[in-house]
Amino acid sequence: MISNLKNHKYKKGLIQPPMNTLSNKEPMSWTDDRLPEYLWLGLILMAYDRTKGLEKIGKILESISKINSSIIEPKLSIILSLNVNQQEEIYEIITSEIDSKILSPLTVIYRYIDYPIFNKYFNFNDILFKDRISKINKTIALYYNHQSNESTDLRFVILFMLVFQKKLNLPLELAKSLFEYPYTSHEDAKMKQYRPFIRVTEMTTGITDISNSKNQEFIDNFWKEIGLKIDCNPIVIGFNKEEDSVDYKAYILDFQKKLNHLINEQKDKSLMDDKFDVILGTTTYSLKIFNDVIEKELDESILGRHAYRTILEAYINIKYLLKIEHEHTNIWEEYKLYGIGKYKLPLLKERESSRIKDKTHFVEPVIDSIVNEILWEEFIDIDLRYFDKKKIKEKFEEVGEKDLYEILYEYDNNFIHGFWGAVRESSMLHCNNPSHRYHSIPDISFEQKMISINHDIYKIINKFFLLVSEEYQHEYK
Does one domain contain both 255 and 213? Predict the structure, then answer.
């Protein structure tokens, strides 16, 4: 069950899911930590039909429990660490129930030099190396999902040993489900209750680690050995580019014409009105960014996300200024000077620095002229706070665009800062190889594209259009 946001706990800037608020928790991953230990049992289950496989493993583990009371969990690392005689006793039990070749694939990881007794029983030279690797890979894939029917079967047999060693005491009704489980089809309605019970019970043993024998070196070695023996299988996620009903180039051209008409019609405002400057300038800035996205086909790129986030913030700033202008007489000039102050800071730093004197995109004469355009810079403050002392989130909320902030702004902000989620989505490929735990691979060939941003940008630009239209509606048709 996945917890919703309401179930998360808020504490000092941290939002935690319920599981992370539990005390004294040391969770162990089914796939990462436990599957390597129990893969030998998975190989046996795969070799027979479901009920027969479960019965055979039950006989094996019951017999092992009778000769060794210290093995509470049937982990391979525990068996491999036993002395020669104890190992041979266990391997004799196993081979009396199953064909020895079933466990042969494991000998590519647990080789003779380190595990001679295991290889004595289970290494067969007539089974090709590639076939052994392939079998392990298929086994990992089958049991990878901790909630699949197959994984639940495997997790069920792990509980056998706890029962045989009298370490798992259950109420009669729950104990009954354990006995019925091997003979109940996964299609049976009762399995809807049995499977969660099996998984929770096995998971509890994983969290508490009953035998206190988590062998991290063994686990790490397993994933390293199998991972290095098989190639990556990178997958590029693709999106079908749907036919868009909007001709974006024509839309931008039309918007340009209308802006040009407005500017010519309202020449006096262009000469003297800070508000006109800010609204039309910011709208043009956003339209130019959209044009870059369209002309350079950046809609499926990282920069497309940068563009959307910038346009969205620009739109919110203008909408916010319009909302509060009646409360602040000089708000448009203040907004201009606030932005100029942001330009002034790197200008002063540049003048005092000897390090950034080589060719850069910071052109000091241009920045200098802009900083001194409205006022002499000696009269311009540098405000390091948010404009109007309000965070961008508050501005979204005040202008009725909370959803845009909580979903799209927050999402695209990851691309601006290069946080891992954005890096993973845009610049890493999925390796479709269970033996590599479906890790990610750097997209060094630049193949990964994301879904087009065009329509989302269009919707914000259209909001700009409507905002300008409404503000200058008596002149602007």
Answer: no
Q: How far apart are CA 109 and CA 452, in angstroms?
A: 45
> Same domain for 53 and 117?
yes
Instruction: Tell me the per-residue pLDDT of 457-473, one tens digit each, with 9 for 90 and over.
Output: 999 999 999 999 888 86
C-alpha atoms less than 13 angstroms from C-alpha of 42 in its C-beta half-sphere: 28
Instruction: Give the pLDDT confidence of 8-24 residue by residue, as tens digits.
Output: 677 766 666 666 666 65
Q: Which two tokens stand for residue 359?
A: 């060719």
Please name which of 418, 393, 395, 419 lies closest in space to residue 406, comparing C-alpha atoms: 393
**8 Å CB contact between 321 and 331:** yes
Closest-CA residue to 159 (of 169, 173, 146): 169
What is the Cα–Cα distance from 28 to 20, expressed in whole angstroms? 13
Structural domain including 409 reads 248-344+385-471
- One domain for residues 38 and 114: yes
pLDDT of residue 474: 44
Distance CA 368, CA 352 (A): 14
Per-residue pLDDT at 34: 94
Residue the block writes with tokens 């690392």: 77
Question: Using the 8-state DSSP alphabet, how is residue 472 labeled?
Answer: T
Contact 75, 219 (CB under 8 A): no
Instruction: Report d(CA 68, CA 89) in Å as an integer.
Output: 10
Alpha helices in 353-419 (DSSP H): 364-371, 392-398, 402-403, 410-417
Q: Is residue 44 very low, low, confident or very high in pLDDT (cuts 50, 70, 90)?
A: very high
State the alpha helices, DSSP H only, in 266-301: 267-272, 274-295
CA torsion sign, 185 to 190 to 191 to 194?
A: negative
